[in-house]
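Quick illustration for those who missed Monday's session on complexes.
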Amino acid sequence: MVYSKHNIFSKLNGSDNFFIVNLLSGGADILNPAEGKMIHDYLDGKDIDREFLWDLKEKGYLVDEKEETKLYRSKYLDFIDSRDEDEVQLFFVPNYSCNFACTYCYQDEYTPAKQELTTEIIDAFFRYISHEFAGRKKYLTVFGGEPLLISPKQKELIAYLLKQANQSNLELCLVTNGYSLTGYIDILKTARIREIQVTLDGVGNVHDARRFLKGGGDTFEKIVKGIDACLGNQLSVNLRMVIDKENIDGLPEMAQFAIDKGWTKNVLFKTQLGRNYELHHCQATSEKLFSRISLYETIYQQVKQHPHILEFYKPAYSISKFLFENSSLPDPLFDACPACKTEWAFDYTGQIFSCTATVGKADESLGTFYPKVTRKEDRIASWENRDVTAIAECFNCSMQLACGGGCGSVAKNRTGDVCSTDCRPVKELLELGFSAYMEKD
Ligand code: SF4
Ligand code: SF4
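Prediction with iron/sulfur cluster bound:
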């Protein structure tokens, strides 16, 4: 018997207790200081209490190596099978232009093509996806730029897109800055809307200083009206707050605002926090960005001081929230990056991309659906084949089944190779998460 290479063992944040988790065996335990010491002793080659040793075997923390390899293979096959059954999310970008000039927008780097969306291109898109993803469960997400621009022509095109989605029996999500939502409600009500993602970066001035109209102009009040209009018309809203060091202190106020509006009690309302990160540029402003772990450490401290934040947003801390809410671990994550597996992106110029992180970058194009269908099969294969079994560093990493290798685009920006690592601070997140959700006082 050996100590499993999938054990994640550490101390809870601000506590004398330890935790041990194994995504392959499904074991997860909080250990008191004496038990934690026994694990350290075992790893140092010392004899430990026989009953405790037996317990470690029972829960799959001590394993027969051959048996563990067999189990790994079988769970990997289960993962691939279940991914093949998963829904595919198809992003469509009707334009990269936007009526906002957000301080951190990465799409400001792109020069939009001098081409416009037409109904012919929309038809070609639906033809391509109905052929390429025939027999797969799928849904559409309309993305930008800003898709809900208020011009009559844009309204006509979006209405046509929604009509075609209905005809293809596809549910739809929309990612919008929310400024023109009220003017689009009637059109949106014609579609099978799954959710509308809207961004607010704080209350009032905090938001307005980051997300303002091109040429200047506040946007907060109009977006709030748009969210109210959606909820009032039974359209689900996913409120996203993009966080960095400039607006993190506004999180308690944002949470209180959503609570006071009655949003957090509405079943149609959910939230997410997005970390403003260095996806494409921002070297010049990187001191205002949080690393993944420093963001969660700050949220952890804020929740201690302002527990009402949890009514607005519950941090996942890797798999901690899942474990707390389900009393069991999630399935092993052999791959965290859905690009070219359960996610694709398409734009109004007829190009095909792996996902939202690469869409619009000319050198990331994987082919075209218009004016004719072309596919760069070797590039597509490099995205399709990326998982923790294909990345050498991941294969011997004890975090692999919680991390899943991270984001292929971030990895590629770092190393030039999709099939490389984007390491997630799994152990540190679990130290916070076990302390936040599982530590009994
Ligand atoms: S490359 Fe990154 S952003 Fe794109 S699907 Fe993969 S994880 Fe998501
Ligand atoms: S990306 Fe890094 S942390 Fe994640 S599994 Fe691979 S080596 Fe481990």
